[in-house]
Amino acid sequence: MSPLQTMNQKTFSRITGIVFLIIAVLHAVRIVYGWDAVIAGWSVPLWLSGVSVVLSAYLAFHGLTLGRK
In this structure, how many other beta carbons lie within 10 angstroms of the beta carbon of residue 63? Predict the structure, then answer.
């Protein structure tokens, strides 16, 4: 049996929460430093990172909360 088959819901929620927390922090750092992000020639506006911070932080909070129970 592989380690992924033995992962329970609590571990999955913690890992997911940490991943979304990292994403939220990186978007916040992008806003603070004004880093440019270009995807296929399209310049991603900073306000979109603001939305991403809120959504990622929300998902991180719930993932980490479920991981505690």
Answer: 19
Residue 29 pLDDT exceeds 80: yes
Q: What is the DSSP string of 1-69?
A: --GGGG--HHHHHHHHHHHHHHHHHHHHHHHHHT---EETTEEPPHHHHHHHHHHHHHHHHHHHHHHH-
CA distance 52 to 37: 13
Q: Tokens 């129970």 correspond to what residue?
A: 69
Instruction: Check: pTM over 0.85? Answer yes or no.
Output: no
pLDDT of res. 51: 97
54 vs 49: CA distance, rounded Å: 9
How far is the C-alpha of 15 from the C-alpha of 7, rounded, in Å?
11
